[in-house]
Amino acid sequence: MDKKFTGKRILFITDNGGCLGGAEKSMFTLIKMLIGRGHKVYCLMSGKGDFYTALKEMGVVCEIFKMPAVERTKNPLVLLWFIFYLVCFGSIFTVWSKLKKINIIHVNKTPSVFYGIAISLLSLIPVVWHVRSYNRNFGLIGKIVHNFVDAVVCISQDMAEPFMDFFGDKKIYVVYNGVFMQPLKKVSKKTGVLRNELKISNNSFVAGMVTRITPSKKIEVFLEAFNIISKQKISSSHIHGVIIGDCVTAKNKQMSTDICYKENMMKLYNEMNIKNYVSFIGYKNEPEKYIADMDALVLPSRDEPFGRVLIEAMALGVPVIAADTGGMPEIIDDKEDGFLVPLDNADELAQAILNLSNNLLLRKRIAKSGWAKVNKLFSAKIYTDNIEKIYKKVLEL
Fold it and tell me: Domain 9-178+380-396 in CATH: superfamily?
């Protein structure tokens, strides 16, 4: 990286100032690194919350402005209203951006891209679109968005492929998320936080999910795996599962879906009668403390574009097990630095958990290899290096 690439003024735009989900954590990591490298960071968001507070405490200049989500509609009045809103928004923040001498606009997630383009068109400031969820149905709107952004950053090759198939590889970049690293010896010691809360033995093997409760996370597969384990009459004092998280979203329609899914999961949980084997402990503000106390982190999701929690666990010296789908095979080499199991296969998941629980040497080998993998490919430094290269390129266009 060119050491002279410092001192840029970067405006981040995000539709969420509330809870710190995976997209927000990745944006926070990037901003912290950019500030450390001498850049000045501003952030425009649609509301206040934990994410807003965390950015403010880091010294980021944050502005709040309502950014209604774009919904697919054929109603011309709705479209006209939204276009009018974008013009007003763009006009206001073009003046603001010029006053702040912004060099680059960085849009975090797809819902915010229209607002970044609105400013960019009027100010001629280049805009980078950071895509963090799957986009497969582009159409006319997709073509317009692609034409008006200077770079599209995808968080995995799996996510980038639909873009490349539709648009070609011009302006499309794959940049993996990054996490802050500590020495393996420091992070591989168990904290006791999770076991104390669960009131289980320090010798218990704990496999857990840290996740938003939503259908794509396939919590039912995790429950079924522990149902299989329980039927093998393995003592619950020896092996225990935990689910950390809750229904967390700013979208009302999605929240209704997630709450319904959670109710179904609790019903399934009760029907399986595995309360001695699995615990739901809700949302935690500092999940890293709980992840560090696990013996295995499990992510059986479908449509997972990357799986940030996997690299968070690997960086903490915790072995990981994930579904062999989406962007997760780009993180894990099966049986080398983690385990991949077929999607929706509770039997294979149960066997992977049991293999780790019964083999301490295997756990240590996988933990060490996982940490080394993240340090080599998914560190915050490498993540920021790759983003800065894109910044430099779009500024030279």
Answer: Glycogen Phosphorylase B; (3.40.50.2000)
**pLDDT of 3:** 57
Distance CA 289, CA 294 (A): 9
pTM above 0.85, yes or no: yes
Task: Decide: 241 and 222 in contact? Cβ < 8 Å.
Answer: yes
DSSP-assigned letters across all residues of 321-367: EEESSTTGGGT--BTTTBEEE-TT-HHHHHHHHHHHHT-HHHHHHHH
d(CA 218, CA 205): 22
Secondary structure class of 105 (helix, strand, coil): strand
Mean pLDDT of 346-357: 96
Domain 184-377 falls in which CATH fold?
Rossmann fold (3.40.50)
Sketch the domain layout of the chain as residue ranges.
9-178+380-396, 184-377
Burial of 36 (0-12, 13-18, 19+ CB in 10 A): exposed
Pair 200, 279: CB distance under 8 Å: no
Helices assigned H by DSSP within 39-75? 50-57
